[in-house]
Structure formats: C-alpha cells, structure tokens
Design goal:
Layout lengths: L1 E7 L2 E6 L9 E11 L3 H7 L11 E2 L3 E9 L11 E4 L9 H4 L24 E5 L3 E3 L6 H5 L1 H14 L6 E5 L3 H11 L5 E5 L3 H11 L6 E4 L7 E6 L6 H8 E9 L13 H6 L2 E4 L7 H9 L10 E5 L3 H10 L6 E5 L1
Parallel strand pairs: 9-10, 9-12, 10-11, 12-13, 13-14, 15-16
Antiparallel strand pairs: 1-2, 1-4, 3-5, 3-7, 3-16, 5-6, 6-8
The structure holds zinc ion (2 copies).
The site of one zinc ion (ZN) has 9 residues, from helix 2.
Length: 336
C-alpha cells in the first residue's frame, strides 16, 4: 500500500509499504479521510511528540474514517464494505483505569500516530474492532474523521458537568473550540461567548449562533466577561491564565487544548482568590457512537466546518497549511 512516512522534521515521503494484516480482534480499514490535527505538528515539525522520539519512519494521522476491508480472527462485524469512523484511543480493557471507567487514561493505551504506533496517513490501517462505529449514509467520510475532535469536545463538556443555565466562554474557535462549543450546546447552554483573535475564525461561531438551538455568542477581544465555565481550546499556553481571568469565583476552567510549549505559568492569585476548579481534559472516551448520532440528527454540524482537501501525495502541504493556521481553514483533510 502507499503511505506517508515521516523520516525527520518536515521530511515526509510517499512510499510503498506492506499492507497491515488485521490480527485477532482487529479489522482492516481502507482509509478514506484523515483530518490533520495541530497535535500532529509537534512530531512533524520537531521530530518528537512531547519528548517521545520515533524509532522508525512514522505514519502520522489519528482523525480518520474509511471502509471495512477485512475482518480479523474472531470478528464477525461490521461487514466488509461498511463505512466507519474510528476512535483512535485504544485501551487494554484490563488495567485499573479501564476497570474504573477511565479508558482514556488506560495505562497501556495505544494511540495510532503517537510513537511508536503508525497512524492513518496510508491506504490501510488495522484497528481494534471495538474502535470502529458505522456511519449512516448521510454522514460523509470527512464528518466521520471529525468525530475525533468532536469526541474531545464531548468529553470536555461532560467533565465540566454542565447545566443549561451555565454561562460558558471558549478560548479559541479552531476545530477543537468549534467542536467543544457544539458539544456544550447539546446540553442546552444559551449563554456562550468565544474569544478568537483570527477574524476568519470568528465567523464560524456566529454561524453556529444562527441555528435553531439559538445560542447567543459574544465576541470578546478583552476579558470583559465572567463565565461559570471557561473552556481553553486554543492550545496557546498563555491562554490558560486568560481562561482563569475569565472565570467567575467558584467557577471552573477546563483545559482542552494541549498547551504549547508544555510548561505553563500563571499568577496563582487568580485561581486561589476565586477558588477555581481547574480540570485538564485528556482526549476522549466512549464518545464515538454519540458523536455519530449527533451529526446524523443534525444537532451538530461538522459538514460545513471549513476544510481544505489534499491527496496523500500532498501530505506535507496539508501539514504546512495546518502550521500556517489560516483563518479560513479549521482542518486540512487528506484522502489517501
Ligand atoms: Zn486530534
Ligand atoms: Zn487499560
């Protein structure tokens, strides 16, 4: 099969590699759409993922969808040809975290595209059968790939323990911010504000506000708001303190974005005097079926999220476009 392999920072090569065989309990997926996540850029640009260095030329890509191409031993569904979305956080099901319902914190977690496990920027990938979920005809491959960032938003919204009367602010209106806003809106929230410095990205939350659920969005360029719950979705490490500044006393801050650089400093007076609860959210768990249903029912709109399409041969261009953070593109999509 053809695959995009990362040899060194910014050195991606399209190569012929052996097609993976689905092992027992696995399915082989013919990949149709891969969304490039800003978290993929760490490895692409720096050659390591938070200090973890690949021991082989890595295939990246963890937000993806495709068709079932083959079933491994002991797997009898979904049938070959089924269009599926994939939850890329593969837990062991046996450790103390899995047994206590924290599968996303599994001590033996496997995450395709995080070293040393190859990801989906290839024609095929073998996945555990439990990680795939069928897509109805009305849900596109691109929407299927975007169920992963939607899952991140749903998980963060669950951690926040939202009530409809809560006010919420979101820092960052990229794909994660947009997905988290849409997820939060399904809890019935009506007071939602977004802080986004890129003008092109401020249009999207306005569009969301026009849908029948009718959430009111404010555009906040300085900290003029006190929200019950603040979601930091930008991944900008200075935004963690900004999120605390936006939270009301006894409020909550949910850190959804991955702060970059990793080390965060903040004025401790802000969370201390306000007695804030700070929650760091880790990927997602058990969100795939719910995400697909929300898209299929129209409660969540990922189909009109601003995307730009690339072929597998253009993987490097898709990565560079993501690095450039254009206001009119929330995700680059590679179709292998
Ligand atoms: Zn991602
Ligand atoms: Zn586990």
């Amino acid at each position: 099969m053809r695959a995009a392999r990362l040899y060194a920072p910014r050195d991606v090569r399209i190569e012929e590699v052996p097609t993976p065989e689905p092992g027992p309990g696995e399915v082989l997926v013919r990949v149709r759409a891969v969304a490039i996540c800003p978290s993929d850029l760490r490895l692409y640009q720096d050659g390591h993922a938070s200090g973890v260095v690949p021991d082989h030329p890595m295939i990246q890509g963890h937000e993806f969808s495709g068709d079932i191409a083959e079933l491994g031993e002991g797997v009898d569904s979904p049938p070959v040809g089924t269009r599926v979305a994939v939850e890329p956080s593969w837990h062991c099901g046996k450790c103390d975290m899995c047994r206590s319902g924290h599968e996303n914190l599994c001590r033996n977690i496997v995450f395709p595209s995080f070293p040393q496990r190859d990801g989906a920027l290839a024609e095929y990938i073998a996945c555990p059968a439990f990680s795939v979920y069928p897509l109805p005809d009305s849900v596109s491959y691109i929407e299927g790939a975007l169920t992963e960032p939607l899952g991140v938003g749903l998980h963060a919204a669950r951690l926040a323990g939202l009530s409809p009367q809560d006010s919420a602010a979101f820092l960052g209106a990229g794909a994660i911010g947009t997905c988290t806003m849409q997820a939060a809106k399904t809890w019935g929230l009506e007071q939602m504000a977004v802080v986004e410095p890129l003008a092109g990205r401020r249009e999207w939350p306005r569009k969301l506000g026009a849908d029948p659920v009718g959430a009111a969005y404010l555009e906040l360029l300085d900290a003029a708001l006190e929200a019950d719950i603040v979601f930091e979705c930008s991944g900008d490490n200075a935004a963690v303190e900004q999120a605390m500044r936006l939270a009301r006393p006894a409020g909550k801050v949910i850190v959804v974005g991955i702060p970059h650089p990793d080390a965060v400093t903040f004025d401790s007076t802000i969370p201390r005097r306000r007695e804030l609860t700070i929650i760091f959210s880790r990927r997602s768990r058990e969100t795939l079926a719910e995400g697909v249903k929300l898209i299929a029912s129209g409660q969540v709109d990922l189909g009109s999220l601003a995307t730009r399409q690339f072929s597998l041969a253009q993987t490097a261009e898709a990565m560079e476009a993501t690095a450039a953070r254009p206001g009119d593109m929330l995700r680059a999509i590679v179709s292998p």
